[in-house]
User: What shape does this take?
Amino acid sequence: MQEENPYGIKSYVRRSGRMSQAQRRAYETLLPRYGIPLVAETLDYQQVFGNEQPLIIEIGFGMGIATAQIAQDNPRTNYLGIEVHRPGIGRLLGEIERRQLLNIRIIEADAVEVLKQRIPDRSVQGFHVFFPDPWPKKRHHKRRLMTRPVTDLLARKLGPCGFVYMVTDWADYGDWALRELSATPGLANPYEGFAPPQHWRPQTAFERKGLAKNHGVYEIFFKTQL
Assistant: This one.
């Protein structure tokens, strides 16, 4: 049983989403190959990936299609996806196998615990946080991932010229994240408010559905202060 992290209430709820046969098969057969266990030992990136390429961590990759596309487009960067939703893990594992991607690994665990236990300080090039749960009800705002001191933890893991890149379709969460990240020592916003769209990021199916309903998309991009 996972121990509750000292940074506050968890920012997710484990949902027992139905897994397709293909997702279940990929989860059972490929996770031992592409998965990394959560143990109290810092990761040796060179040992895990077999190279010294920079590392980007994605927190909550959903079904993982955009994750796989980004990794395929950037073979000289390593990607570590952290997720607890097993159908999504199974889907991304299937994409890794189908596309023959060598630069993705997965940890099925609480992201805060992963950062605390496995990720060395000043070792990450960037964090991707795409469409995290907005926890829209006011009484649930404390569950939002982009909340200090979690943002302080992200900043501590970033190396020189590192970044935090978040995208949300909730304006309120976007404003919240801007305030929390702006108050985080070591991070700076190179833009005045929200960032322009990063055109290298593929749209997700979730995002396309939102755009069809005229939902806004709010991008936030913070860099480490030099």
Summary: The CA atoms of residues 23 and 91 lie 5 Å apart. The longest helix spans residues 21-34.
